[in-house]
């Protein structure tokens, strides 16, 4: 009886901690949802993260739009999300921005973004 009560209490604490952290870390939850195949939930979490100016959330959302994973493929929207991620400081997003599908290369803009990201690293 005592062990069942302890287990119930432990599960309740774990659930409360999970709910608390899931609200604070939508990007990480998006990765978890994506890994288990819950693309709708992953999209929602990445979108929430991006709206909160999370660099990696914007990048992951851009990847979804660029690949057409769960959402309709939209290279223009993907490129805008990659640019936002770059401007927020994610240097990795520069590569995605530069290589976004179906978009003509805008080398001047790409160079400006690259320079901006590099300057932030100093």
Account of the protein in words:
With 122 residues, the protein is mainly alpha-helical. Helix content is 78%, strand content 0%. The protein is built from seven helices and no strands.
Q: How many strand segments?
A: 0
Radius of gyration: 19 Å
| Structure annotation, total helices | 7
* End-to-end distance: 60 Å
Largest sheet: none
Low-pLDDT stretches are: none
Structural category is mainly alpha
Residue share in β-strands:
under 5%
Shape: elongated
Percentage of residues in helical conformation: over 70%
Mean pLDDT, nearest integer? 82
Written as H for each helix and E for each strand, in order along the chain, the element string is HHHHHHH
Concise description?
The chain has seven helices and no strands.
Ordered list of secondary-structure elements with their pairings:
Blueprint lengths: L1 H23 L1 H10 L3 H13 L3 H13 L7 H14 L3 H7 L8 H15 L1
Helix pairs in contact: 2-3, 3-4, 4-5, 5-6, 5-7
Features:
mainly alpha, 122 residues, single chain, 78% helix
């Amino acid at each position: 009886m005592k062990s069942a009560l302890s287990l119930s209490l432990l599960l309740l604490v774990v659930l409360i901690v999970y709910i608390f952290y899931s609200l604070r870390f939508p990007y990480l939850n998006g990765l978890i949802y994506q890994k288990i195949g819950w693309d709708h939930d992953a999209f929602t979490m990445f979108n929430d993260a991006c709206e909160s100016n999370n660099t990696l959330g914007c990048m992951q959302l851009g990847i979804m739009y660029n690949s057409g994973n769960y959402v309709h493929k939209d290279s223009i929207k993907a490129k805008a999300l990659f640019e936002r991620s770059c401007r927020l400081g994610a240097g990795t997003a520069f590569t995605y921005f530069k290589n976004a599908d179906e978009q003509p290369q805008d080398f001047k803009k790409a160079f400006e973004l690259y320079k901006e990201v590099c300057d932030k690293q100093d």
